[in-house]
Design a protein that fits this description.
Elements: H1 2-26, E1 29-38, E2 41-50, E3 53-64, H2 74-85, E4 94-100, E5 104-112, H3 124-128, H4 137-146, E6 150-151
Antiparallel strand pairs: 1-2, 1-6, 2-3, 3-5, 4-5
């Protein structure tokens, strides 16, 4: 009796593994990360694509106050940068955050394109959309590389 229960459980596990394997084979999801460093500043961009169409983008930028003209302190940076961030608040599919430190600030952005409307994302659709209106991974990677970004090997 216990043997029959064991075979049923083993069959169930094999069936589950088969479904997971088939699901993984059916998806052509790819994740790439690129980074650009200049002095004390850096930006890292991660793109997630499904069948070459970008479905998610995230970036983390670290910017020193010394690199911004007219900014000498955390308070100066907050006064200058915070108002420019306000239009990005409350956009569906966009998570935007600023973190002001003593000598730099960290900006994090995450866009879920399955939720976000690119028309609501200032400047982003002009940067990444190809002529068909799709967010194409190949075009985005080419643009990043032309700007000096280097691929981060994972």
């Amino acid at each position: 009796m216990g043997n029959k229960k064991y075979f049923k459980m083993a069959g169930f596990v094999l069936l589950l593994i088969s479904f997971i394997t088939l699901a993984a084979c059916g998806s052509n999801q790819e994740t790439v990360t690129y980074k650009l460093e200049k002095g004390d500043n850096s930006i890292e961009v991660t793109l997630v694509a499904d069948d070459e169409e970008i479905i998610e983008q995230s970036s983390t930028s670290i910017t020193s106050y010394d690199s911004i003209r007219g900014v000498e302190s955390k308070e100066d940076a907050e006064a200058l940068i915070t108002p420019t961030a306000e239009p990005l608040q409350g956009i569906d599919g966009l998570d935007y955050n600023l973190d002001f430190q003593d000598d730099h600030f960290i900006e994090t952005i995450k866009v879920d394109f399955s939720i976000a409307d690119t028309a609501d994302l200032p400047g982003l659709n002009e940067l990444l959309e190809n002529e068909e209106g799709n967010l194409n991974l190949e075009d985005a990677v080419k643009s990043l590389e032309e700007q000096g970004f280097e691929k981060v090997e994972e």
